[in-house]
Amino acid sequence: MNAEEKREFGDRLRRLRREKKMSARDLARSIGAAESSIIHYENGTREPSMERLVALSKRLDVPIDYLISDSPSEYKNMRRILESMDLTYDGKKLTKEQIEQLKKFLLFLIHSEEKEN
């Protein structure tokens, strides 16, 4: 990985860890690594071995390609996004009720388009 890719990897790793409400120490312990390793990965100063990358992807429940690339097809699925992430709009966190309304609206859009075709 070049410096930019390491930084992007670190940003994704940090975001995923926080979404799982884990500390760097918790994540490190869960994969048998030192807390400092996680911090180095997140800061883009070190890159994980393939073995560590596999452990991180399993622990964070994301495909490896999501960790190392910003365009995995699996994360384009709106249902998965709505069910797995804390969502915000203009800096305001959406409530569970708002997310449910958003899901219903998306279903409405999908079904109305199916009726038109």
Number of strands: 2
Most strands sheet: 2 strands, antiparallel
Report the top-level CATH class of the largest domain.
Mainly Alpha
What is the CATH homology-level superfamily of the largest domain? lambda repressor-like DNA-binding domains
Overview of this structure, please?
This protein is mainly α and 117 residues long. The protein has two domains: 3-71, Orthogonal Bundle (434 Repressor (Amino-terminal Domain)); 77-116, no CATH class. It is 67% helix and 3% strand. The protein is built from seven helices and two strands. A two-stranded antiparallel ribbon has the order 1-2. A hairpin with a 2-residue loop joins strand 1 and strand 2. Helix 1 crosses helix 3. The radius of gyration is 17 Å and the shape is elongated. The termini are far apart. The model has no long low-confidence stretch (mean pLDDT 84). This is HTH cro/C1-type domain-containing protein. Keywords: DNA-binding. InterPro entries: Cro/C1-type_HTH (IPR001387), Lambda_DNA-bd_dom_sf (IPR010982). Residues 13-67 form the HTH cro/C1-type domain.
